[in-house]
Amino acid sequence: MLLVILLIFAIPTAVFVIWLVGSFVLDFVREYRNPTSDTDPDDGTVDDEDTAATAEDEGYVMSDQVAALGLLPPDRQNTKTSRAEQPEVVFAVEAARSGAWRPAAELMEKTGDDWERRSALAFQLGEVAAVDDTWLREWDAERPDSADAAVVAGRGAVIRAWKFRGAKLASHTTDEQFRDFHQVLVRARGINGRAAELNPADPTPYICEIWIGLGLGYPHEVMHALWEEITARAPHHYEAHFSALQYWSAKWRGSHELAMGFATRAANNAPPGSLLSAMPLLAHYEYALNTGAPDSEDCTPEMVKRVDAALLDVAAADPDGPRTAEVRHLLAAFLTMQERDEAALEQFRLVDGYVGAVPWRYSSDPAAEFCRVRDTAVERAHAKA
Description:
This is DUF4034 domain-containing protein. By secondary structure, the protein is an all-alpha fold. The chain has 19 helices and no strands. Helix 13 packs antiparallel against helix 14.
């Protein structure tokens, strides 16, 4: 076990050299289907700025049909999250932001071995720490062997690194940004390794390590070893699969074939309610972004079956689970592409007001894009009635 951990958390110096001379310098972002964006949609971080458009700026005009359903305009869409967050999570995050660590410590402790919630909360707190970690250092000083503080520190370090990298295409990123990004990721690897040592059962540090691997260019063999560590702890972890799918995609270290193979195996082997049936939809979406595939490929019989499987999966999932809304967003988009508008509206109603999810965050204006697609479904459904 020690040897495997050393392998994962201590990648050879050769990787650094390869990275430094340019193997990582690639354009890893593809724009949304109607591209207007130069931003990174899925680097595992969230920008500090809220990018919601205002109705006045975008000239948005709400139709009578949309208004009758009580749906919200772009300026009332929250671009930071995919759903209404639990009050205790909001309280802990805001307390951390104001400098108080105890609410975060208490809530992290309550997550226990609910790994999906634990990783989601650690990410939210890590975002705060990436900006100001004074409260986290106080937590660690008072409880120096706290695995909870350590895992938040690991996530915060990785998020901080990606903030140094920025959200621009590689061609628009400076050498200084790349250098700082790499250096902070190397430090984050040590912080993350400490979190793994303090709580060996927790998959979260290993999931976080995927994003270190994306930046440092981990080879396939290391990713396979990392994946074994994750699945030994949480074989059907949604965030883990989402993160690994990014690694195996063509824009990172893999190909469409590798990504779709990974996604299909995940969907076929997962129990109902795991939400992993969404993985082939995500893999297809990545493929479409990278290749500019025609919209007709979203509507093949195979894609319809995949959407149907995800609908069954989300119906069996915990409605308040931390990832359920993310799949609903994806389903709303695919159902609209397939002109299954009534079914799309069911998903849109459940997530309206929150647009921090794929596919909307692939757009330069997530709120406007969400409303555009949602309103298309509304108006077509009305016309069919």
